[in-house]
């Protein structure tokens, strides 16, 4: 496998988590294709598969985002989904979305690893660009699967915590402006500010060879509103502690204590224009 450094290496963590979860006696998600990829890649996965809380969190975020995607498709006449920082995400295949226009966007070295497992189809396309290289916007708009009547769902899963506040704001503003003539929905994973300040203690990320640091997180929605582009409104927030409490053990009690709930887990935020 091509050597991955920095943020691209982190894409191996959710792959491993989904593969391990699939073998659980009562899995939160079932993802046999992640297991197939996991078994074929040459990487010392043992270093990042010994963190139960991280694996549970990733499985729950997968569960939540799967539901968001299915709801969006069911309630949208002309959907388009743009998955930014796609890594080795299997959602398009797992949910059998063969007739849904879908772009997976990631840096070239990540797409190089991804491409052998996900051949492009009529509706499923990949763009090998950094999300901060905004040429990808033109490539989306020039592709035949894009048209101006579509509603667009942007997915940011396990990516924006690696970038600072200014970059988060600039990125969302740029995308919102470029696609302002569409109805837009953003499904974004954020970690807490507490977690962002302690990447070295993260049970999985700290074990990566390249140790990419978290740079942004928020504890309360008020903090998120301070950096959110004005053209976007927060629709709802899904905290991982609110799901599958029996799997969290003692951590499951944090859902009853707002101070701890807000500071010791990740969440999915939905924003719309």
Automatic annotation (TrEMBL):
InterPro entries: Ppm1/Ppm2/Tcmp (IPR007213), SAM-dependent_MTases_sf (IPR029063), TcmP-like (IPR016874). The keyword Glycoprotein does not apply. One of its GO terms (biological process) is methylation. The keyword Oxidoreductase does not apply. Keywords: Methyltransferase, Transferase. It comes from the Bacteria. One of its GO terms (molecular function) is methyltransferase activity. This is Class I SAM-dependent methyltransferase. It comes from Staphylococcus auricularis. The lineage of its organism: Bacteria, Bacillati, Bacillota, Bacilli, Bacillales.
């Amino acid at each position: 496998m091509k050597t991955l450094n920095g943020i691209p290496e982190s894409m191996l963590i959710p792959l491993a988590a989904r593969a391990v979860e699939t073998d659980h006696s009562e899995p939160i998600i079932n993802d046999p294709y992640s297991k197939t990829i996991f078994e074929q890649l040459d990487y010392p996965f043992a270093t990042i598969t010994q963190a139960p809380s991280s694996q549970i969190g990733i499985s729950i975020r997968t569960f939540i985002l799967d539901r968001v995607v299915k709801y969006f498709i069911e309630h949208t006449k002309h959907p388009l989904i743009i998955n930014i920082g796609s890594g080795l995400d299997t959602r398009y295949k797992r949910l059998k979305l063969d007739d849904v226009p879908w772009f997976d966007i990631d840096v070239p070295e990540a797409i190089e690893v991804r491409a052998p497992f996900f051949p492009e189809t009529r509706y499923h396309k990949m763009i090998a660009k950094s999300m901060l290289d905004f040429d990808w916007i033109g490539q989306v708009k020039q592709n035949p699967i894009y048209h101006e009547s579509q509603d667009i769902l942007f997915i940011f899963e396990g990516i924006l915590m690696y970038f600072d506040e200014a970059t988060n704001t600039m990125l969302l503003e740029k995308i919102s402006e470029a696609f302002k003539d569409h109805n837009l929905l953003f499904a974004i994973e954020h970690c807490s500010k507490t977690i962002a300040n302690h990447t070295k203690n993260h049970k999985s990320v700290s074990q990566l060879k390249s140790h990419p640091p978290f740079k942004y997180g928020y504890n309360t929605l008020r903090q998120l509103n301070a950096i959110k582009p004005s053209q976007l409104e927060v629709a709802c927030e899904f905290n991982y502690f609110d799901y599958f409490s029996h799997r969290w053990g003692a951590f499951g009690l944090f859902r009853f204590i707002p101070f701890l709930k807000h500071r010791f887990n990740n969440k999915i935020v939905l924003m719309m224009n």
